[in-house]
Amino acid sequence: MKKFFLIITIAISVFSFSQQSDLLKIRKYRVSYLDEKVKETSGLSLLNGKLYTFNDSGNTPELFEIDKKTGEVVKIIKAMLKIKTGKL
Fold first, then answer.
1. Separate counts of helices (H) and strands (E) for the chain
2. ∠ at Cα 33 (30, 35), nearest 5°?
3. Beta bridge partners of 43
4. What is d(CA 17, CA 38) in angstroms, rounded to the nearest whole number?
5. Residues 68, 48: contact at Cβ < 8 Å?
6. Which of 27, 61, 79, 80 has its CA 20 to 30 A from that of 11?
């Protein structure tokens, strides 16, 4: 009997709290398109009310400050980093 209740409890949990549930579903929406300077964004961060992103590997080592409403690049911060390839 305990196994039966355990199986029922697990089944209810899976169906109630799965990602397919409309109750917990995250809504997707687009605020804006990113500027073409940001070729392949690899991360996004909000710092002191400003939005920053950076390109994925193989692109120039730059940080982009992005306008939160329009998606336009407000400022480009060049990082003086050397890109290494291979194992560390």
1. 1, 4
2. 155
3. 54
4. 36
5. no
6. 27
Radius of gyration of the chain (CA): 22
Six token digits for residue 22: 């409309």
Smallest CA-to-CA distance from 53 within 26, 10, 67 is with 67
What pLDDT, in 10s, does the model give residues 17-57?
555 555 556 666 677 777 788 878 878 888 888 888 887 76
Kindly list the distances between the CA atom of residue 32 and the CA atoms of 3, 22, 51, 68, in Å, as whole numbers in the listed order. 51, 25, 13, 9
pTM of the prediction?
Answer: 0.55
Is the CB of residue 52 less than 8 Å from the CB of residue 74?
no
Place of tokens 């039966």: 4
